[in-house]
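in:
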């Protein structure tokens, strides 16, 4: 807000306006002199008091309205400047708001400087004059912004688009206050109240017109035939980002999304839309999934199914409702490469980024699983409970779809350095290590709102997205479960000396919904996670990514043990044990040792679609390795630390799995 006293500023501008108009426009001179008399008669000296006095009379804006109607640039410029000051100081009478908007509409063609000042007035009119700008008056405000948004001048165009977003959000801001006044904080059927309350009615019609614009249909409230589709999608996103809760609380608004927007978005994925529209549409899908999955469950289920099929067109569903079928062809290329169904590759990348966001949000993932998959019994595989399971399976396949990433080094763990200081064979290939530095985009594709073409991306980008998404799943499971283990141990009698992971399953799974959901999710996801971990432990990873693997594998062992999911626990723990030792170097040594039994996972690329990991009997080294000439490297030592941490955490419930753990520790000590 301007710091200059509004009285002094208006007096100066009115005198200037009077001087400029005295010959050709005497009516303006007379109106200006009348307002000067009013100003000089106000005894108050503060801007707030002066503005309050001016707002009591319609006379304050009359010289400026007349100045705008002359179509003279100089007079109109002075008048618009004064109107801006009056509006910003709340010095305009509520009865004059409609006339002010109508006047501004008449001068939008007089130059960029006037257009920018007009735009600066629209938002204060909507937000500062409570109860004045609604219905047809609000439509006039929208028409101002929409007309100026079509300007060829980039400053005016961009400013109008920004103001339009703020006005749309402000319309829904007012609904929040209106709901609070009517005690609608709790969700209830407000279909009828939306048509009787002025702000809720405005919001309903604005949202309806935005959805109609997006679909290319005729609007009802804001009558404008040509609006950029990208801008419309941006405006819808602004509503959902800022006021998804308001939309969810009003059933009529939800119905608009269900009947107008969701069908448009579903149909959008059947077309080869340009990149800029695809980005905006996928962002709306993300907001549906994140914020509206409870209120628009069928639509969100459909979106998740579509994203799953975009990521892995060949996936077979057990009974989903989605009819989208995409096929994939060719190798990894720049993001303009077209998939077999005719879809550009950037569709697949955008879908994978949204699925990664979903899987890495632990609270959201558990809510979605409980909503879509959690109705089935943990020991059964119900036909209709598979949405998140399909997502996990598709993401797992993408994570391991590049077998050329796998390497076979003499130390068994790529990219590691020997403890004695000797570099491994892969040390000279650090530039080819898989990690964020060479497998990710500087800005994720779904955030590139200002780009008209998709960027070039690293070839392993999709696999990297999928792998880091599954790391997020493991972190989310641990985030839900492990604190409860620690809490229970703290509450137990000191004399019990229980390990943290020994108390969760018996004490909480029957009473805590979060724990039940986490257990079912782990039961569904551990085969996929184990397959992917098996794949990436023979990939040349950078230190950061390898550290994340060790951290999340340790958490998965601990969570599986706490839930008494022994098969999952043993699979992850045996995989860790195997990577503690230089397996390639001692392969010949193992063949001559006494045969034992040890479980390991078959390679992920040998798994049939939908199959679970297979267990094979392999030799287990149980004799002494003293006297051998090979040593452990740093990454094998990291794996060993993880094994020790898991054994300590599950000490009282590890049972027969102590045997491979102790054998591994014995061999590591001898090396």
């Amino acid at each position: 807000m301007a710091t200059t006293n509004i009285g002094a500023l208006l007096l100066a501008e009115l005198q200037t306006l009077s001087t400029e108009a005295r010959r050709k426009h005497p009516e303006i001179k007379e109106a200006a002199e009348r307002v000067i008399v009013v100003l000089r008669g106000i005894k108050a000296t503060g801007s707030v008091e002066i503005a309050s006095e001016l707002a009591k009379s319609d006379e304050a804006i009359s010289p400026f309205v007349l100045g705008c109607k002359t179509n003279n640039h100089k007079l109109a410029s002075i008048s618009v400047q004064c109107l801006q000051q009056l509006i910003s100081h709340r010095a305009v009478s509520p009865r004059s708001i409609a006339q002010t908007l109508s006047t501004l509409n008449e001068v939008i063609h007089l130059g960029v400087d006037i257009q920018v000042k007009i735009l600066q007035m629209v938002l204060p009119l909507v937000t500062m004059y409570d109860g004045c700008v609604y219905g047809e008056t609000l439509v006039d405000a929208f028409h101002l912004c929409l007309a100026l948004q079509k300007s060829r001048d980039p400053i005016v165009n961009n400013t109008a688009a920004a103001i339009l977003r703020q006005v749309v959000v402000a319309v829904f801001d007012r609904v929040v206050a209106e709901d609070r006044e009517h005690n609608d904080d709790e969700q209830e059927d407000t279909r009828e109240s939306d048509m009787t309350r002025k702000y809720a009615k405005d919001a309903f019609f604005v949202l309806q017109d935005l959805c109609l614009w997006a679909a290319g249909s005729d609007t009802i409230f804001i009558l404008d035939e040509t609006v950029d589709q990208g801008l419309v999608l941006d405006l819808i996103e602004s509503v959902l980002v800022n006021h998804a809760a308001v939309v969810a609380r009003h059933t009529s608004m939800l119905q608009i999304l269900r009947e107008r927007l969701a069908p448009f978005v579903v149909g959008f994925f059947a077309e080869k839309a340009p990149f800029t529209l695809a980005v905006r549409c996928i962002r709306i899908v993300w907001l549906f999934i994140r914020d509206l999955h409870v209120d628009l469950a069928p639509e969100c289920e459909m979106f998740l199914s579509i994203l799953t099929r975009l990521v892995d067109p060949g996936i077979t569903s057990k009974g989903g409702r989605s009819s989208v079928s995409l096929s994939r062809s060719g190798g990894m290329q720049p993001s303009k490469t077209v998939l077999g169904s005719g879809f550009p590759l950037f569709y697949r990348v955008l879908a994978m980024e949204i699925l990664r966001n979903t899987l890495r949000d632990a609270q959201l993932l558990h809510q979605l699983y409980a909503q879509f998959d959690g109705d089935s019994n943990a020991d059964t595989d119900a036909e209709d409970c598979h949405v998140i399971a399909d997502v996990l399976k598709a993401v797992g396949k993408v994570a391991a779809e590049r077998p050329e990433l796998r390497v076979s080094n003499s130390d068994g763990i790529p990219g590691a350095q020997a403890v004695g200081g000797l570099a491994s064979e892969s040390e000279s290939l650090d530039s080819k290590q898989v990690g964020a530095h060479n497998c990710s985009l500087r800005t994720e594709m779904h955030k590139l709102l200002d780009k008209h073409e998709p960027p070039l991306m690293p070839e392993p980008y999709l696999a990297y997205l999928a792998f880091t998404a599954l790391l997020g799943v493991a972190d989310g499971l641990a985030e839900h479960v492990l604190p409860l283990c620690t809490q229970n141990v703290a509450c137990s009698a000191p004399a019990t000396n229980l390990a943290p992971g020994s108390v969760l399953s018996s004490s909480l799974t029957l009473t805590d919904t979060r724990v039940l959901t986490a257990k079912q999710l782990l039961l569904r996801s551990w085969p996929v996670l184990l397959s992917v971990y098996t794949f990436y432990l023979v990939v040349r990873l950078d230190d950061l990514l390898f550290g994340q693997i060790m951290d999340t594998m340790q958490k998965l062992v601990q969570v599986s043990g706490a839930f008494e999911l022994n098969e999952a626990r043993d699979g992850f723990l045996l995989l860790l044990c195997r990577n503690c030792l230089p397996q390639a170097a001692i392969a010949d040594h193992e063949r001559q040792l006494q045969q034992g039994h040890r479980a390991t996972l078959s390679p992920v690329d040998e798994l049939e679609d939908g199959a679970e990991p297979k267990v094979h009997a392999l030799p287990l080294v149980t004799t002494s390795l003293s006297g051998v000439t090979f040593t452990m490297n740093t990454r094998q030592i990291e794996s060993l630390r993880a094994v020790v941490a898991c054994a300590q955490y599950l000490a009282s419930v590890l049972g027969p799995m102590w045997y491979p753990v102790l054998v591994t520790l014995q061999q590591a000590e001898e090396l």
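note: The mean pLDDT is 79.
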